[in-house]
TrEMBL record, chain A:
PROSITE patterns: ABC_TRANSPORTER_2. InterPro entries: AAA+_ATPase, ABC_transporter-like_ATP-bd, ABC_transporter_ATP-binding, P-loop_NTPase. Keywords: ATP-binding, Nodulation, Nucleotide-binding, Transport. The lineage of its organism: Bacteria, Pseudomonadati, Pseudomonadota, Alphaproteobacteria, Sphingomonadales. This is ATP-binding cassette domain-containing protein.
TrEMBL record, chain B:
It comes from Allopontixanthobacter confluentis. This is ABC transporter permease. It comes from the Bacteria. Residues 38-392 form the ABC-2 type transporter transmembrane domain. It holds the Pfam family ABC2_membrane_3. The chain crosses the membrane at residues 39-60, 201-222, 234-253, 260-282, 288-316, 328-348, 380-405. InterPro entries: ABC2_TM. Keywords: Membrane, Transmembrane, Transmembrane helix. GO terms for molecular function: ABC-type transporter activity.
Length: 344, 430
């Protein structure tokens, strides 16, 4: 990171003007790998409203990284700032080691949330044109366009105009146009939206293939299942802030595992050994795994003659973690608003 | 998909397209899209209407030029007959409208024009009628020679035909024999100062009307092209890949190239019509700088006028999310363009006046005013200066337009339509 970045971020080291990258939470991801994206304190305001409020991100090269958040959380604005489509009001960003994303446009592929192609262009021409925008010679882009369409079972549509294609086909064409110039970083904004289950599966395979080839893939989504299946790291955005950024495993570990217990006896001394959050759900007791682990509880249940019929420990899913984290953030934001109001 | 397995070459090197390379990609796409669209056919048909309107405007300009300085008849009879003719003209003008006359100094009468010129005896020296017709200080439309008994009228065909009757009447009155009108012999010439002025004014007004209509059409096309692009949501793809300045410049120059194709087609067709029908049409009036230079200047001034107004319209387009908003926002620019056109039209009839100088200096009207000047004045050096000045002004305006475009284009979009909020109150959604 250069001096300007250090000074602007306010994170510079007095000796070498290097930023304090340790502030960036890679959350157990491969921190040894160089970062594809570094963002520190990104802020974007629109006419008085803060859409993005101090976002920090660190995405290692070669990772599949998800940006999760509800609609209106600030995902698209964050991606637009990372790509240089809009400039942040505060904070700094570096993409593949460069301060200005446009300087490395040839190394980036971007699929915006609002898909856009020229309706009168033929499919292979559209791919060629998108490649040309990223520096690929037009003729080469068109040639690759035909190849990619063939490879993705759309060869029959190569000479059809975009307006003649189904929405899913047009979306695939645009995705291929995003990849035709062989970018090192691929940014996909809500790539699964509008695709049927089969095409969603194909897209997941594509993303895995890209990552296997060393390409960094970042995508935003509000469908957690895709991120859970694909991503090594995620950032959760809510209300323009990032309450969590790190590995998927670490996010899931934010919620204690849930214990599901079925006993023969309904009453007895053993009840005293159950944690305070234990609740009855049908024939089962549900509670968080105690910090002391399962063994002391098991001992108490046996000694208390509970008559264990079944016991399972279920790790929290990313969805539960998301609700837990995004909910906490919302509560914290509310408290902050209340406090600010009180101060005024 | 493994992207790097496609194609023969490896990953693209770390770099980006230059501003002009990126602009070329946008321009090439827009150029091809418009060229092979149905809209281009309408664009090619447009000038049929334009030429009609421009022709009408040209005729109005010619009339205005005639009204601004009445065409005059030079009376080149011998001194005594000239005096009698002037006196008879004076008498008859009390009764009805007669052509303006003047008696050249060498005839012995006062050099002042008009019927009040006096009746002094002249030397009777012979004068060259063609020299009188080309006298730039006088708006001479025809020359009367011969005698009162056998008057001879020299000048452009249409003019001498219309003045034949009044000349016969005045000559008969001058001879004191109103019962017999002398036969007026006619000697047509190619042109006169008056007809040249009139035709030059027609060329000036007609050409700047054509210029105005073309730039209006193109500015409208470039604007709707941009709005359509925002509607198609392509603008974000472009903004992510290349600088917005390149999008702005690409769109601007694509439409300029389209217009040059149109002009080449129209010019070719017009040239063919003129070549095939030259005999039937007769000689064309020539602008002051000559047709080849005038055509070259037309192209240059057209490019300048279009780039100036096009950059304003594109900047407006960047602010507006929908066609409806564009119409509202472009209204002031359209009014400005109309004002500029009227200023230039007014100025071409008064070359050298302060208003014409203003029209030449004001960047938006400068191309129009200078084109009007090219039709009426032969000097070329003012055009060299004006083109230099206009290139500078165009550069500044294009840069300002591009800056506004860059800062605004991604802040307005279809989200505003969905939310039902206007662009000026919208908060872009994430």
């Amino acid at each position: 990171m250069d001096m300007a970045l250090s000074e602007r971020s306010g994170l510079g080291n007095a000796d070498n003007h290097a930023p304090d990258i340790t502030r960036l939470n890679t959350g157990g991801l491969n921190t040894g790998a160089p970062l594809a994206i570094e963002a520190i304190g990104l802020v974007k305001r629109f006419e008085g409203t803060t859409a993005v409020d101090g976002v920090d991100l660190a995405v290692p090269q070669g990772a599949i990284y998800g940006i999760l958040g509800p609609n209106g959380a600030g995902k698209t604005t964050t991606l637009r700032m990372l790509l240089g489509i809009i400039d942040p009001d505060a904070g700094v960003r570096r993409v593949l080691g460069h301060d200005r994303p446009h300087d490395i446009a040839r190394m980036i592929g971007y699929l915006p949330e609002e898909r856009g192609l020229y309706p009168s262009m033929k499919a292979y021409e559209a791919i060629g044109f998108l490649g040309a925008l990223r520096g690929l010679p037009l003729a080469e882009g068109k040639r690759r366009g035909r190849e990619l369409l063939e490879k993705h079972d759309l060869g029959h549509a190569a000479d059809r105009q975009i307006r003649q294609l189904s929405k899913g086909m047009a979306q695939t064409v645009q995705l291929l146009g995003t990849l035709v110039h062989q970018p090192r970083l691929v940014v996909l904004d809500e790539p699964f939206s509008g695709l049927d289950a089969i095409n969603q599966g194909k897209l997941e395979r594509m993303i895995r293939d890209l990552a296997a080839d060393g390409t960094t893939v970042i995508f935003s989504t509000h469908v957690i299942a895709h991120a859970e299946r694909l991503c090594e790291g995620v950032a959760i955005i809510a209300g323009g802030k990032v309450p969590y950024a790190g590995s998927v495993d670490e996010a899931r570990d934010r919620i204690p595992a849930q214990v599901r217990l079925e006993t023969q006896a309904h009453e007895g001394r053993w009840r005293d050994a159950l944690p305070a959050d234990a609740r009855r759900e049908g024939d089962f007791w549900m509670f968080s795994l105690p910090e002391s682990g399962i063994e002391p509880l098991l001992r108490a249940l046996i000694e208390g003659e509970a008559g264990i019929l079944s016991l399972s420990i279920e790790r929290a899913g990313l969805h539960d973690a998301f609700v837990h984290i995004a909910g906490e953030a919302a509560a914290r934001a509310l408290e902050e608003d209340k406090l600010a109001e009180t101060v005024r | 998909m493994n992207a790097r397995e496609n194609g023969n070459s490896g990953p693209i090197e770390n770099a980006r397209l230059s501003l002009w390379q990126a602009a070329y990609i946008i321009a090439r796409r827009d150029f091809q899209a418009v060229l092979f669209s149905k809209a281009f056919l309408f664009f090619l048909l447009g000038p049929i209407f334009f030429l009609g309107i421009s022709g009408g405007a040209g005729m109005l300009g010619a009339k205005a030029a005639e009204r601004s300085q009445d065409p005059t008849m030079a009376v080149a009879l011998d001194a005594s007959e000239s005096a009698a003719f002037v006196a008879a003209h004076g008498q008859l003008e009390q009764l009805t409208r007669m052509p303006e006359i003047f008696v050249p100094a060498t005839s012995g009468l006062s050099a002042d024009a008009g019927t009040d010129a006096g009746t002094g005896a002249g030397s009777g020296a012979k004068m060259d009628p063609q020299a009188l017709l080309e006298d730039a200080d006088r708006n001479v439309a025809a020359v009367l020679t011969g005698s009162l008994a056998a008057p001879r009228l020299i000048g452009p065909d249409e003019r001498i035909e219309s003045w034949k009757g009044p000349v016969a009447l005045i000559a008969a009155t001058a001879r004191g024999d109103t019962g017999s009108y002398p036969a007026v012999s006619l000697e047509p010439t190619a042109s006169s100062v008056a007809s040249k002025r009139s035709s030059n004014a027609a060329i000036a007004t007609g050409s700047l009307t054509l210029l105005f209509l073309l730039t209006m059409l193109l500015a409208g096309m470039v604007l709707s092209n941009l709005v359509e692009e925002k509607g198609n949501k392509i603008i974000e793809v472009l903004a992510a890949a290349i600088p917005m300045d390149a999008v702005f410049l690409g769109k601007l120059f694509a439409m300029l190239a389209i217009s040059f194709v149109g002009i080449a087609v129209w010019g070719g067709l017009g040239g063919a019509v003129l070549a095939l029908g030259a005999g039937a049409i007769g000689p064309l009036p020539e602008p002051a700088v000559g047709w080849p230079v005038f055509c070259a200047l037309f192209l240059v001034y057209f490019a300048m006028a279009y780039l100036l107004i096009g950059s304003i319209f594109l900047a407006i387009g960047s602010l507006a999310p929908t066609v409806r908003d564009v119409q509202t926002l472009s209204m002031p620019a359209t009014i400005l363009q109309l004002a500029v056109f009227f200023l230039a039209t007014f100025a071409v009839n008064d070359i050298g006046s302060p208003i014409e100088t203003l029209a030449v200096i004001f960047p938006l009207s400068s191309p129009y005013a200078m084109l009007g000047r090219a039709a009426q004045q032969a000097a070329l050096w003012p055009h060299v200066l004006a083109i230099g000045y206009q290139v500078l002004a165009t550069g500044i305006l294009v840069k300002m337009g591009a800056a506004l475009f860059r800062s605004r284009v991604m802040k307005s979009g279809p989200q505003g339509v969905k939310s039902g909020r206007k662009w000026w109150s919208r908060k872009p959604a994430a």
